Amino acid sequence: MPQTLYVATSNPGKLRDFAAAGEVFRIQIAPLPSLQDIPPPIEDGLTFEDNARIKAAYYSAFAPGCIVIADDSGLEVDAIGGEPGVRSARFAEDAGFAPEELEDADARNNLYLLQRLASRKSEKSTARYRCVIAAAREEKVFLTADGSVEGEIQTEPRGNGGFGYDPLFYLPTLRKTMAEVDLVEKQSLSHRGKAFSALLEKLRRTPY
């Protein structure tokens, strides 16, 4: 196992998730140094794995000799044909949905999702979170791992934790939204936690 994994993300919610996962799995997790000064790559992949690979390979060039991980993740809602999918982070933006009273991108995405679902007759909107994590060194991806978690979309947000669609993503077995689950518990059941656990298991078995 490597001493440190460098995470190529500036998303504070993802950084919190990865830091908590590092504590659970007893591995050092650190943000990629000077990430804010590196122009981002174009994420034009058609799948979560495509984009995770693009980011991991690109950012590994800025940390020679080190292992850099990057993830791509999002929400798939069955009632709207699996949207927002790879467009999860920019769901409202891509649709031109930008209420002036909502400056936060997560809040806009959540409201836009609820509006999209408002006309649906189904009482329950089944959905899943999906995540793919890629590991790269010297601009070459050598491992990927994925994880998912099933849930439902609630009509009103609940909870103050998490980020993204977490306040709307309900876990029936726990009777909580993802935003009501603490960070440690989240690592064992979330899509990102499952993908990270699978990646670490592969790292233990794979020469790198």
Task: Write structural notes for this entry.
With 208 residues, the chain is an alpha+beta fold. The protein has one domain: Alpha-Beta Complex (Maf protein). It is 32% helix and 25% strand. It contains 6 helices and 8 strands; from the N terminus they run βαβαββααββββαα. The protein is globular.
Main attributes of the structure:
208 residues, Maf protein, alpha+beta, 8 strands, globular, single chain
Secondary structure layout:
Elements: E1 4-7, H1 12-25, E2 28-31, H2 48-60, E3 68-77, E4 83-84, H3 91-94, H4 105-118, E5 125-137, E6 140-153, E7 169-171, E8 176-177, H5 183-189, H6 191-205
Parallel strand pairs: 1-2, 1-3
Antiparallel strand pairs: 3-4, 3-5, 5-6, 6-7, 7-8
In brief:
The chain has 208 residues and is of the alpha+beta class. Helices cover 32% and strands 25% of the residues.
Largest sheet: 8 strands, mixed
Radius of gyration: 17 Å
- Strand percent estimate: 25-35%
- Overall geometric form: globular
- H and E string: EHEHEEHHEEEEHH
Quote the CATH topology. Maf protein
